[in-house]
Amino acid sequence: MSVATEPSAFFRHSVHRTSKLLFSHDIIVPLGTSFPLSQLVQQHYNIQTPAIERTFAIALHKVLPLLVCLVAVPVSGSAAESLEVFVDRVVAVYGGKDALSRARTVRQTGQTVSLTRGGATATLTRVFQRPDKLRVEIAFPGEQVEVRILNGTHGWRRNSEISGPMYKAMLLQAARIALPLLLLEEMPNLKDLGTEAGPGGALFRVLQLSLRSDLDLFVLIDVDAGRIRHSRGSLYADERPIMEFATTYANFQSWNGILVAGREEQYAMGRHVGHTLIEKVEVLASVTPEYFHP
Question: Rounded to two decimals, what is the model's pTM?
Fold first, then answer.
């Protein structure tokens, strides 16, 4: 396999704020191949990274395995389908606007595996309430439960208020759970970046949504199936990307008439950091306001 001579359109758009940065999971690279990387990559994960214009060898299994080998080939498979019609179709695939709107408060339970902790497995509970409330509980065996909370403009982790990248990461997680209805709700702010040819001839439509001035969400959707297969969040400071989180979605199941990905693969700064298995999804009638406070 050879490195693409030109990054995909998705890649170019995902780093449009700074044209000189490359992120490792945008191109699949065989073992021993070198290519430029950003000095910002992995700065929060204690991984040594060369500065811009220097090189770094990356093993194939350490880069994002899905959708990263996209090549810049113009595709017109859904060109005739307007953005509005396309998003409506995606929402219908996930259960429809009415069903998704009724699921205002959702609880997801399952397991999460952390590769940064040697593959340790924890039980996971997420409670999301539209539009911007989220409570995540992570329990590793023999440890105190870690609680992360988002409540609009405030966030907490382990009872301490958070800001900056940690707060934005919570915003991003809530936005991912809000998909695809969020795309419909934010239609005026949604950018259509076109289509990309992926592995096996699959066609993906790329959408961009700015959650705030320093946080962008990119979504790749299988054009034929209408399913979201990949999302990426880019965090910025002074118009420069400083952190990036990506998720791929598989094992889709229907819960209470709503389609949910049963498996999520998580990546941070181009590194595979773990995966989550969703084992149960419940629509809750209500939760007390205190639930979204430490």
Answer: 0.76
